[in-house]
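Appendix B. Raw example, untouched.
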Amino acid sequence: PLVCEDGDVRLVDGATPYEGRVEICLNNQLGSVCSNEWSFKDALVLCRQAGFPGAGAIPITGGQFGQGNGPVLISHVQCGGEETSFLECPYLDDANTITDCANEPNAGVICEAPCIDGSLSLLDYTAIPTTNREGILRICLNGTQGTVCDSEWGFEEASVACSALGFSPFGAMPTISQRLAPYSTINSLIGFVTCVGGEQSLKECSSYPGDCENGDFAGVICEDLGIVSDNCSHGSVRLMDGTEPFIGRVELCINGIWGTVCNRGWRTIDARVACRQVNYPGGGARPMTVGGGSGSIFISDVGCRGQEPSILDCYFSTTSSGCDHSQDAGVICEAPCSEGEILLVSSRGSDTRVSSGIIRLCVNRERGVVCDQGWDYADASVACRQAGYSQYGALPQFSRRVQSSSGLNPVMSQVNCTGNEDDFMDCIASSSETCSNGQFAGVDCLDLSTLPDGCTHGTVRLVGGNTDIEGTVEVCINGMWGTVCDDLWDFRDADAVCIQLGIQLQRNLIGGEPFHNAFFGEGSGLIYFDNVHCFGNELSLLECFANPPGVHNCFHSEDAGVRCTDADAI
């Protein structure tokens, strides 16, 4: 009589239906399997065929379920783990091999018990259930176990999952882009899930079925059940163990408890985001390492772009392997600013510590930039004095740009100083208008010890000639004389100088003649203008087009000169 069908399997002599000695039907005969090379993958396929598809199959090679009475039919099974039938796996069934198994225990398995609807468990990357506090999430729905896709997977969902797993909801970290070994054949059951936090089970959260590729599974890193809340606000940052309130170790609140950040990959741009989050928005933030933290190291390899409002809005890794608390990330934030304080910064937003740069102004405790609409010499003079430099010879800069990561926003525009103000904040200005990056104001200042020449801003003079109407052209900028480069210097430029000088001297000067290469001798001090282009009828040299003030590629050997004609002396 037919005892069985080829390929049938059964488990016998186990304490439960899902464990026991393996018996298989081969050539209409039931027999056992030799335990030589019996492995997890073999057990996984056997349990799947037996109706227990859970990934927690355990191979038994020590004869725990006794020896069968029938023959040993196969040996050296080599399943890949993905097979749907046990006989799809390679095996040996020749007489010599079977004889060698006479003294070997029969193979057995302990399959994973059927799951309870809504229950959660964690798998390692080999798809074996783990009791560790971290792993890939598996959920039981309608008797089937599967993964959760990582779309929308975040901190609230991780907190609910950790609590349902029997761990603490506090400090729960989500992990994404998790991948299982391909032989696991575990499919995703939930496409995405959204929790508000506090639910007792993921089934209470809003979710939709869906499928995702292996490598897009959700996971968690949980804390032990005994962990209690620090009553901090999720995502908030604090600085600890610093010598000043704006210096210290960066600690991050994750689902109610404080932890640290590993300094691996910690950069200036990340420090700026952290400092801005703790209300020190100055662009001078610097990264540092402050050891001595405790608790979890929540994140590492932080990668901010610089505009994020929170560290958790930056890229980061939840893998802190290789990090310990001696590598806790810290910051030195820029000290709080005082109203009206001016610093000169580079395009990166950091203090230049030199006398030239973009204006950074403190308004209502916020450091920001000044728009260059209407920005002129009088504004530059007051700004240089307030920044700790000389007001004399101050030059305005226009169209300056800062890196978006600097976090500097416009705080003032349409500035209109007279030049006599004691405080930049006394100048007329607007705080409501704004401007784009690339339209910010800057200054080029001289050292505080610089003394004025006693000249009137904007006036011109000719020096080194035989008369007062010929010589090297000098122009007064904020009380300091400087020269003009002779690049593109022509008759129309000379005419404009003579018209202005005639007005100053109350003489009828005409017919300006241009001279090049310091014909009347080299000047000294600053070279204010280059590539001057006048129409010839301007009343002031400052009305002519030219490079931005102070921007040139000249030496005093290229100082421009002029010879004017006195019409009344002809």
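End of appendix B.
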